[in-house]
Amino acid sequence: MATHPLRIDPPGTLLTDLYQLTMLQGYFERGMFDMAVFEFFARKLPPCRNFYLAAGLEMALDFLEGLRFSQAELEWLRGQGQFKAPFIDYLAGLRFTGEVHAMAEGTPFFADEPILRVTAPLPEAQLVESRLINLLHFQSLIASKAARVVLVAAGRLLVDFGLRRSHGAEAGVYAGRAAYLAGFDGTATVLTGAQFGVPLYGTMAHSFIQAHDSEDKAFEHFAHSLPGSVVLLIDTYDTEVAAHKVVALAPRLAASGIRIRGVRLDSGDLGAHARKVRKILDDGGLGDATIFASGNVDEYLIARLVEEGAPIDGYGVGTHLDTSADAPALDCAYKLQEYAGKPRRKHSEGKATWPGRKQVFRRFDAQGLCCGDTLTLEGDNAGGTPLIMPVMRQGKRLQPSPTLEEVRARTRAQLATLPVTLRGVLAGTAYPVQVAPALEALAREADRLVGLGSQEAAP
Amino acid sequence: MATHPLRIDPPGTLLTDLYQLTMLQGYFERGMFDMAVFEFFARKLPPCRNFYLAAGLEMALDFLEGLRFSQAELEWLRGQGQFKAPFIDYLAGLRFTGEVHAMAEGTPFFADEPILRVTAPLPEAQLVESRLINLLHFQSLIASKAARVVLVAAGRLLVDFGLRRSHGAEAGVYAGRAAYLAGFDGTATVLTGAQFGVPLYGTMAHSFIQAHDSEDKAFEHFAHSLPGSVVLLIDTYDTEVAAHKVVALAPRLAASGIRIRGVRLDSGDLGAHARKVRKILDDGGLGDATIFASGNVDEYLIARLVEEGAPIDGYGVGTHLDTSADAPALDCAYKLQEYAGKPRRKHSEGKATWPGRKQVFRRFDAQGLCCGDTLTLEGDNAGGTPLIMPVMRQGKRLQPSPTLEEVRARTRAQLATLPVTLRGVLAGTAYPVQVAPALEALAREADRLVGLGSQEAAP
Q1: Which ranges carry the Nicotinate/nicotinamide phosphoribosyltransferase domain (chains A, B) (predicted)?
Q2: Alpha-carbon distance A297 to A269, whole Å?
Q3: What secondary structure, in 3-state letters, does A203-266 show?
Q4: Between the CA of residue A253 and those of A228, A240, A259, B32, what are the distances in Å?
Q5: A395-446 per-position pLDDT tens digit
Q6: Of residues A130, A163, A344, nearest to B164 (C-beta)
Q7: Cα(B386)–Cα(B389) distance, rounded to whole angstroms?
Q8: Which residues of chain A from 241 to 270 reach within 8 Å of chain B, CB to CB?
Q9: What is the CATH code of the structural domain delimited by A156-322?
Q10: How far, in Å, CA of B123 to CA of B33, rounded?
């Protein structure tokens, strides 16, 4: 695990829950190394989401390919006293040797549909649970939120501004990737640009203005320090007064070959300010200068501003995006569905699961819009397009990773298949997902194996 | 920046917003290296918080002490085309050489009260903004949430279970630290234990049960794999049936020297199940076995269960804690308050700030409970206990870091000073924070300096 200065380093194999290690010791001592099948899926959609968007697969595969305990980690475990020496020796040689099947990143998905399946000897498949969920949950969470913003913004420039209130370093970096994947144009987070090639955007902060004795001087100094063209932040003291200053400054800057590309609003009633500022800029001969808005922006506000016809050309979306503020977690899980060839399911109240290795088939109407999914078992052809494909075998990727641009293009095509009822910010008609008879039969079989009645076949 | 296998590695200096770098280039070209004062504070408390709890200072100081651009980072910046060679040479030598004043970790604080002040040459103080907010915001967010849980749980065992749905690796690790600091007993996240010495807790997952053909066998195998004592998860199929299995198993385990320390419930009506299970355990001679509950637990549910007298001895708190689900972000900022000896403030609508270097004085009543704060300027003695102290000078800590146990003990003492109206889960009487005349006068002076009227002195 080498430090790479232009990326977030992997956190190592101790980023797991303690019980994964105590359970592994139990499996090890009983020789329970048979093939296990786990699937990652999300339960019921929250009221403020019409679909989920799959993301995080590339990091999940990186994690599985790199899985191993370092000497320092093994030493630390040895010092804890609850793990026996033969088990720690076993951990030293543990690698991920299994298979992975998954939905492609950027695929919309719905409740109970798995987006990733791990098939591996039980201890391997168990150990990876915590970090796999941590990776898939967060990126799918942000991609799902970002897709909502993209759909309502209808082509306006969208930039991730969320680093400072994202939950730590990795969240800040990966949120920018997830947002770009979902259709954002870029991010302000430099490391996301350096690690993933996501285009970088940035304007200026209030502190730059405040550090100067006058706003005019601050605008002029900032413009001269950037080659070519500049976006100026105009809400530090009085938005419309500042817009007039921008107009007055433009000819002087033009004489130095500097173009005012646009202005940024960051507070107040963004729609009202945008209309006034647009008029000031137009009247001042800056009809080409764009208006970019930020400050507590989310998809609900953008939808309203777009509907009102506010003359805003782009948005910086920060906290609401990077924390998925209206739904900061998805009710997701990674559950054992089969062990040693037998189907398994849990029956806990409100959390029962569908057993077996599953496939999701999606049907499309004549316009190419998706119109219904079927959740069934692998090998049971329910008709339509299967969404879950093999991506890893014997612990190695089957294909080189797609580029992020490829994933983004595929995501755009996928979002274009969503019916109009799912594309807005409000709750749409629920998307139909049916469970195939083959899967219902297997659920009854799984219950019979552990001595439960079949009356509760549906989760 | 060396990889340390038992900690989350720092993400490097590119974890920042692009505009910090473009602004720095502007400062550099104009020779704006005078002393700047920035303060980090939070705006209005959300309706579901009665106080904030300061956390993250230790990581913030680590970040400042280690600040530098690596050769690889400088090369990358050079390749971007928008930064000029003399500026990149300047970045190569940039270190943090300033002062920091701060509230101690574990101090309750309120709207507009700074918890950290940076005094440094403008480019240094500016560059660190994004990561400082990222660190202080997240840990204060989680500590503030955790403190609510601690206050209502009234001494019951509390364990952080949130890694899987925390927002990435760093969030998972630091959430466990913030929760422990606030009074939790431990975490399930192994790396949090390895990095910070936070006590580790763990039981078993449903998959362990499901991987066995019978629940009884799974319990027995798990118990034998752990030396001494064990907590068994009993909700995989039928909670009360499983409780009877535990009772039946206990004598056989006792014969092998294994004690059943407790059981865990993870679904359904936790209070109702706990009452039934308590009776089954008591009737079966397991009066000493504890009941631990998890599954969508937060402070609201714990408060209700405690009030109902549910026989639950401890809680695993996951998603709600690690995402601070009811308030997943705080409205916080890091703002320029003084530059080159002159007070500064922004005037943006709804976001105006108080200028100058500030101090917070806290008053206590005869019972030792805090009864009011005064926000004023450094050097203006408003009476009471000053909360902001020097912690770093010339880029180095003034004192060795306290241990996490020391911080936790201090936090407990601090939480004990909160008046009863702030200690519950519902909104209490707002805590009085008054602004001193000296600060109001400086705000008017700052406005006058940039040519604004004084009619809007209050933010």
Answers
A1: 158-335
A2: 11
A3: CCCHHHHHCCCCHHHHHHHHHHHCCCEEEEECCCCCHHHHHHHHHHHHHHHHHCCCEEEEEEEC
A4: 10, 20, 7, 21
A5: 999 999 999 999 999 999 999 999 999 999 998 889 999 999 999 999 999 8
A6: A130
A7: 8
A8: 266-268
A9: 3.20.20.70
A10: 7
How far apart CA B360 and CA A216 sit, in angstroms, is 34
Q: What is the pLDDT along chain A (459 residues), one digit of tens a residue?
A: 334 569 998 999 999 999 999 999 999 999 999 999 999 999 999 999 999 999 999 999 999 999 999 999 999 999 999 999 999 999 999 999 999 999 999 999 999 999 999 999 999 999 999 999 999 999 999 999 999 999 999 999 999 999 999 999 999 999 999 999 999 999 999 999 999 999 999 989 999 999 998 999 999 999 998 877 899 999 999 999 999 999 999 999 999 999 999 999 999 999 999 999 999 999 999 999 999 999 999 999 999 999 999 999 999 999 999 999 999 999 999 999 999 999 998 877 777 889 999 999 999 999 999 999 999 999 999 999 999 999 999 999 999 999 999 999 999 999 999 999 999 999 888 999 999 999 999 999 988 887 775 444 444
Count of pairs with CB atoms under 8 A, one residue in A, one in B: 373
Torsion of CA B87, B92, B93, B96, to 10 degrees: 100
What residue has token string 């800029």?
A281
B434 within 8 A of B374, measured Cβ to Cβ: yes
Give every CB contact of residue B144 below 8 A, 6+ residues apart in sequence.
B49, B51, B52, B53, B182, B324, B330
**Amino acid sitting at position B442:** L
**Closest CB from B168, B170, B191 relative to A12:** B191
Q: Which residues have a Cβ under 8 Å from the Cβ of A343 and sit 6 or more positions away? A: A337, A355, A356, A442, A443, A445, A446, A449
Distance CA B222, CA B209 (A): 9
Whether A346 has its CB under 8 Å from any CB of chain B: the answer is yes
* Helix-helix angle A404-415:A129-153, to 10 degrees: 60
CB of B271 within 8 A of CB of B293? no
Q: Domain residues of chain B, as ranges?
A: 18-142+329-449, 154-322
Residue of B nearest to A235 (CA): B348
B112: left (phi over 0), alpha (psi -120 to 50) or beta: left
- Contacts with A20 from chain B: Cβ below 8 Å: 205
What CATH number labels A18-142+328-449?
3.20.140.10
Residues in chain B: 459
The separation between CA A142 and the C-alpha centre of its own chain, rounded to angstroms, equals 4
Q: Domain B154-322 class?
A: alpha beta
User: A207 near A222, Cβ under 8 Å?
Assistant: no
The full length of chain A comes to 459
CA–CA dist B443, B453 (Å, integer): 11
User: Which residue, B154, B137, B151, B144, is CA-closest to B106?
Assistant: B144
Which residues numbered 20-49 in B keep a CB inside 8 Å of some CB on A? 20-23, 25-27, 29-30, 32, 36, 38
- A83 vs B230: CA distance, rounded Å: 14
CB-based contact B323 A325, cutoff 8 Å:
no
Per-residue CA distances from B21 to B17, B118, B156, B340 (Å): 8, 18, 48, 21
Which contacts qualify for B378-384: CB closer than 8 Å, 24 or more apart?
Answer: B380/B436, B380/B438, B380/B439, B382/B436
Distance from CA of A456 to the nearest CA of B (A): 11
| Nearest-CB residue to B163 (from A32, A130, A332) | A130
Chain A residue nearest residue B239, CA to CA: A348
